Amino acid sequence: MYCDSWLSDEPQFRTKQLRHALFKEFVGSFDEITVFSKKQRDTLKKDTPFRSFEVISHKASPDTEKILIKFPDGKRAEAVLMKHSGRNTVCVSSQVGCAADCSFCSTGNLGFTRHLTDREIVEQALFFAQELKTRWQKNNPNKKWNIALAEPEFRIRNIVFMGMGEPLLNFENVAKAIEIFESPEAMNMGVRHITLSTVGIAVNIPKFLQLPRLPNLAVSLHAATDEVRDQIVPMNKGFSLKKLFSALDTFEQKTGRRIFYEWTVLPGVNDTKEQMDALGNLLKHRNAHMNFIPWNPGPSRIKYTKPDISSIRNMQQYLEKNYGITSTIRAIYGQDMGGACGQLAGRE
Question: Is 91 in the active site?
Answer without folding.
Answer: no
